[in-house]
Amino acid sequence: MNEHTLMQFAGILVAATACQWLAWRVKIPGIVFLLITGILAGPVLGLLNPEDIMGDLFFPFVSISVALILFEGSLTLDFAQIRGLHIVVRNMVSFGMLVTWIITALAARLGLGLSWQTSVLLGAITSVSGPTVIVPMLRTVRPNHNIANILRWEGIIVDPIGAAMAVLTYQFIISGSAQQAMGHTILVFIRLVTTGTAIGVVCGYGFGVAIRKHWIPEFMHNLFAISLVLGAFAFSNHLQHESGLVTVTVMGIRLANMKDVPIEDILDFEEHISILLISVLFIMLAARLDIDELIALGWGMSFLFIAIQFLARPMNIMVSSIGSSLTWPERHMLAWIAPRGIVAAAISALFATQLQKAGYPDAGLLVPLTFFIIISTVIVQSVTARPIALWLKVGEPTLNGFIIFGANQLARAIGKALMDLGFQVQLADTGWDEVMKAKNEGLPTYFGNPVSEHADRHIQLMGIRGVLALFPHEAANVAVAMHYRLEFGADEIYILPSRPEDNRLTANRMSIQNHGKVLFGNTASYPTLANDLARGGQIITTKLTEKFTIAKFTQKHGQKALLLFAVDKTNRLHVYAHDNQIAPEPGWSLVYLLKNGEDNHSRTGENKQIINPVRLKKGYNVEA
């Protein structure tokens, strides 16, 4: 490998990392920046030609990368997620996909004047979606569970099916007479499905049993997973051309749905590999694009995009959702989201070359057309999907909830008070006993390291606006703040100091303020509040009125009450914290901690709801 090639490889990795980071910061799919980078580096500036770097290994590298990406995606497919909606998914990847295929082929033929052979192959190639674009888009759009699960399942299942359809179409085109071609195509289809499914089931089940029975040491799980995926993919392709993608998808689904098989660590590792491969692949494939061919197609490309976006996808959903429990707004949302991804880009490059060699010159347009469809669907849908979801009222509810890190008595009391007011909360802690106490009190919980990848995947962020860090230890609170700061913004990260103000070091105070806001003001601390609760203090919710104003509240309780939260007339939750300016008005509700010894029965017109955790026996807390 010469120095120039090494610099190109390093440049691709650096650019890929920068694109993914930028996409994470602005919360749009990374494919947008990856494609722009690839086009600039390749056809625009002439700095990158993947085939000069990898030679004959380029297309095998693409195939292996797609196999690993699909395996990682299929590991997330739990049948329980689509219980009751599996028929919709089945229809979308069968009848619905056929509708998309036909309409796209007709649009390519009528709008661009391509040959029937190339048009039909383009329809098969661009009928796939994919996890590489669906998952980042779902993070941005934040639709409800039905829509999110259907799109994620469709994106992963449809990829190997679309690749298989492209193979069958190619086989049909080059097989000669129609009768001979049809018979050959049916035979190929049967062999492809049976070979891929059989090898996938056997490998997935065998690997799962080996993990469950501890035949493989834990530190070798990831190595075995990659080796098995690549081995099964290659062996399946050897037995039947292009059946490998079916194999790895079935293998992942089988493994994901086995009981007592821990796959979290494998999934974490595969996710890292997938991000790397997706980033490198998109840059390399985009660098091969011929801009002049794309421009020469003119307005016909717009006709193709309109047919796909406004006709093919809505017809797909209309056919697929007949008789389902999906609401009309959910169907409309599904009809809008269907971005094309890495599999479409990869198989277009593969079959364009083969079909050109077979004597179809317009097959060279497959690559630029596929990339145009990828770019247009991703950009249009990324920009518009979130506003449409909110308009249809199928998006994530208003962000007004909090993740509470800590499941101690203080955290549970605060979580209960917020939940009783209708706000979404989830408590996360590393202590099993504390988590179980929270669970027994009816609070949503997460057990595990809150700054781990497992937490990123399992902590429910729907409706969550920010973080309340209530661990007794400052280092844990700061770690949580650093981990979630870019997710929610520093203004929505609230940290309760672990020491009273007099004992707080300046460096510790500055550390908290650098990563979030000091919760409940500078005078509050975890030991003080926890001690107040342990001595019989109560968290109380009261409503302000024209008679019982904030001035009357202050006059009555004075230093005995610590204000925690305020809820305004629009049901917006305000957090009392250092530098937060809050001016409660009549009609607002106040949540405060009242120290023991305060007269709770004085006649002031105050309307209270008391949250007072009382220990009955080990492991159980109830409200008094």
What are the main properties of this structure?
single chain, alpha/beta, elongated, five-stranded antiparallel beta sheet, 624 residues, six-stranded parallel beta sheet, 60% helix, 13 strands, disordered C terminus
Can you put this structure into words, describing what you see?
With about 625 residues, the chain is α/β, with parallel strands linked by helices. The chain has helices spanning about 5-25, 30-45, 50-55, 60-75, 85-90, 95-110, 115-125, 130-140, 145-175, 180-210, 220-240, 245-255, 265-285, 290-295, 300-320, 330-335, 340-355, 365-390, 410-420, 430-440, 455-460, 475-490, 505-515, 525-535, 550-555, and strands at about 400-405, 425-430, 445, 465-470, 495, 515-520, 540-545, 560-565, 575, 590-595, 605-610, 615, 620-624. The strands form three sheets. Strands 3-2-1-4-5-6 form a six-stranded parallel β-sheet, sandwiched between helices. Strands 9-8-10-7-11 form a five-stranded antiparallel β-sheet. A hairpin with a 2-residue loop joins strand 12 (about 615) and strand 13. Helix 15 packs antiparallel against helix 16. The longest helix has about 35 residues, at about 180-210. The protein is elongated, with a radius of gyration of 29 Å. The relative contact order is 0.09.
